[in-house]
Amino acid sequence: MEHFNYILILLGCAVIFTVICHRLRIPPIVGYLCVGILVGPGGLRWLPSIEDLQPLAEFGVVFLMFALGLEFSIPKLIAARKTLFGVGGMQVLLCTLAGSIAGLSFGVNVNMLLIVSCALALSSTAVVVKQLTEQKEQHSEYGNLAINVLLFQDIAAVFLLVLIPALSGYSTDTVYVTFVTALVKGAVVVIGLALTGLWILRPLFHIVTKVHSTELFMLATLLTALSAAGITHYFGLSMALGAFLAGLMLGETEFKHQIELDIRAFRDVLLGLFFVVIGAYLELDKILQHIGVVTIILAFIIISKTGIIYLVARVFGKARKKDSLRLGIILAHGGEFSFVVLKEAIDNNIISAEYRPIIFSAVVISLLIAPLMIRFNRQLARLIFSAPRPDEHVELHSNNLAEHALAQKEHVILCGFGRAGQILARFLDQEHIPWLALDLDPMRISKSSVAGELSFYGDATQPQTLAAAGLSRARMVVITFGYETSALAVLQHVRAMRLDVPVFVRTRDDTNLEIFQKAGATEVVPESLEGSIMLASHLLLTLGVPTKRVIAKVRRIHADHYANLRGFYAGTDDLKTLEDTDISRRSLHTIVLPDGAAIIGQSLAVLITPESGATIQALTRGIMRINEPDLDTVLQTGDVIVILATPEEAFLIEEKTLTG
Question: In whole angstroms, how far apart are CA 565 and each of 262, 556, 558?
Answer without folding.
Answer: 30, 11, 10
